[in-house]
Amino acid sequence: MSLLSWGLYPRVSNKVFKFTSINELKSLLRSNSDIIPFGNGRSYGDSALNTNVLHVKPYDYFLDFDESLGLLKVQAGVLLSEILDSYVPKGWFLKVTPGTKLITVGGAIASDVHGKNHHVEGCFSECLKEFEIMLSDGEIVTCSKEKTPELFKATCGGMGLTGVIITAQIYLKKIESQYIDQTTIKTNNLQETFNAFEQYQDKPYSVAWIDCLAKEKSIGKCLLMVGDFKKDGDLDYRSKTGPSIPFTFPSFALNNYTVKAFNWLYYKKAPQGISKQKVSIDSFFYPLDAIGHWNRIYGKNGFTQYQFILPKETSFEGLQKILEVISASGKGSFLAVLKLYGKSNENYLSFPIEGYSLALDFKIEPGLFELLDALDEIVMTYKGRIYLTKDVRVSKTTFEKGYPQIETFRQYRKNQKMDKKFHSLQSKRVGI
User: Fold this and answer.
1) Within 13 Å of residue 68, how many CA atoms lie on the same side as its CB?
2) How many domains are contained in the chain?
């Protein structure tokens, strides 16, 4: 059995190892090298792929919950969806969650994921009390920001390259409803979009769908959704499962015309100006999780997500140029997500900086990587960076320019002999 990333690219053969006990894990690490932990396969690129893969997801027990603190202890293979199923009905929610709930807690730490409230709560590492990690020699370390600051800063966002996360203690947040009071703001261009983000930045959650194929005066038009939890006491939450894509679409099915049609319909569905909605947790935070195997729509060659972030002071001009290039290329994405971020943290490879991020999905096809290389140049010109969790092709040179603490990370890995044990296809490509 070979494991694939969510982007279904690249397709590589790998040897998969599983463990159900600490002793099994220790034995596996001692007898295998050139290995990388793998969670639930929701990373888009090659960050959890290698010749040898350690499948952490089966290590998935709930261990403890301190209701007075909202402090949950779980094994690293527990999915965020499993936490929601168990604790939303009790009035608790994740402090930080990405756009899918189908990732493991270990993966959330390794990617230092962020969500629609980064400008308020920061990355996933901000809700971590501590975690246990097995290092390359089999030693188990209890890691926290206070006790082991270097290991904490290297592991949170370190893409599984420092060791195998075993357990984690995370703080949940108290909520009073399974529903969100959502406000949708329809904008006509990028300036209106930026104005809307600034106007509603006091809202704890915000995200925008942006039409990346719009041209000229309409470039940057979007639907901005902002919101917060209702207080109606309705906590009768049950995960909803919708339809599943039963087969891999032919590559020609997703093209410039179908993307344009989708974008037109999606933008058209919202009324002009400002409107209000009551939406569920799943609809607001995890809309794509309702469609099983949605990655199959991109065809047999797979897809990649291109996600970059620009500092606030260069975001408007940089995004304008990038959207112009994408629109002219005709290789638009119908999943284009724009978010506003707060201040960055001290972790060596965490993605967010204060500014705006855009994430776009592209099917793998001739000419795509050349387009993304051109976008890289613009991102670098405007002092931005690329998100490793979504990446499958960025060059070492481009990656290094975006992450000023890369040498600190490399040296720490070398000093701790982590570079003798843990590698991914991505780490080899970008030299980490």
Assistant:
1) 0
2) 1
Domain that holds residue 364: 179-395
Cα separation, 265 vs 290, in Å, equals: 19
- The conformation of residue 422, written as its DSSP 8-state character, comes to B
Amino acid sitting at position 116:
K
How many C-alpha atoms does 122 have within 13 Å on its Cβ side? 15
Q: Which DSSP state fits 239?
A: -
Query: Domain for residue 368, yes or no?
Result: yes
| Neighbouring residues of 248: CB distance < 8 A, sequence distance ≥ 6 | 296, 299, 300
The pLDDT score that the predictor gives to residue 249 is 87
204 preceded by cis ω (within 30°)?
no
Q: How far is CA 46 from the centre of its chain?
A: 14
Residue 291: CATH number of its domain? 3.30.70.2520
Q: What letter represents residue 406's amino acid?
A: I
Task: Give the number of other CB atoms < 10 A from CB of residue 307.
Answer: 21
Q: Are 125 and 345 in contact (CB under 8 A)?
A: yes
Residue 376 in any domain: the answer is yes
Judge whether 289 lies within some domain: yes
**Angstrom distances, CA of residue 38 to CA of 15, 128, 302, 345:** 12, 20, 19, 25
Query: Can you tell me which residue has the tokens 């996360």?
Result: 165
Torsion angle of alpha carbons 298, 303, 306, 307, nearest 10°? 80
295-328 tens-digit pLDDT: 999 999 999 999 999 999 999 999 999 999 998 8
pLDDT at 1 over 70: no
CA-CA distance, 178 to 175, in Å (whole number)?
Answer: 8
What is the C-alpha to C-alpha distance for residues 49 and 425, in angstroms, rounded to an integer? 6
> How many angstroms separate the CA atoms of 114 and 111, rounded?
9
Would you say residue 349 lies in a domain? yes
* Neighbouring C-beta atoms of residue 277, cutoff 10 Å: 15
Decide if 133 contacts 388 (C-beta within 8 A).
Answer: no
Query: If you ran DSSP here, which 8-state letter would residue 293 be given?
Result: T
Q: How many CB atoms lie within 10 A of CB 276?
A: 9
Tell me the per-residue pLDDT of 78-127, one tens digit each, with 9 for 90 and over: 999 999 999 999 999 999 999 999 999 999 999 999 999 999 999 999 99
Among the listed residues 69, 148, 77, 141, the one whose alpha carbon sits nearest the alpha carbon of residue 109: 77
